[in-house]
Amino acid sequence: MSDTLTFHFDVDGENFTSAGQASVQVKKNLRQLGFDPETIRRVSIAMYEGEINMVIHAGGGTADVTVDDGCIEIVLSDTGPGIANIEQAMQEGFSTAPDNIRTLGFGAGMGLPNMKRYTDYMHIDSVVGEGTTITMKVNY
Amino acid sequence: MTINNIKELLGAQVLCGNENLSKDVHSACGSDMMSDVLAYVKDQAVLLTGLVNAQVIRTAEMMDMLCVVFVRSKQPSKEMLDLAEECGIAVMTTPLRMYDACGLLYSNGLTGNGIPNV
To answer: How would you classify the pairing of strands A131-139 and B13-16?
Structure first.
């Protein structure tokens, strides 16, 4: 692939039902571009977890996906409350999600660990009170 | 096992995706926690769940699943069924409870992936 492709999405923070729409769209785009199913799955799951996180914690945000030679980069940005302790947030089972989110099937403290699990690179840049930007890369 | 076999074993009603009924599936999973499905499931084509919201369908779509079974006669909304149609996922509802539905399928040869999480 010689050209760099970029996709930009605004993630609506008001509506839990629509959370994941951007990831579904990215999945469709990657499928159309002919990526292998495993790469598509890794990208879309990592992005989906990130989208859910932005809806639960940050009132939405933006998602930018760049398809480059050998690498797909996902950047999720929000202006939410930030993550006070990133090391703690990365532990499986640690969650600050409200109880009502658990009744929706999320908030089990698996989001960030899942994002790390499915990507080759993940960096969290977060300032409490200002927001969080997560950069993930999947090599193909 | 085909998706139609699942329908018959569970006495389930198919709500959408009839075109998937003849497709073969080799393993399944049961969970109400979508994060766990996203974390641990690999190559399971069927999701049994008691959770009813749009994220169930999106999770199934992310995992390339072919079929979602709602237990305890739970009824998904039209919005969810539209989403499932769009993703090519068959949706059915069974009066059985989660444990019984999973047990029936398992004892008839539809297993999980058998990998323990430690």
So the answer is: unpaired
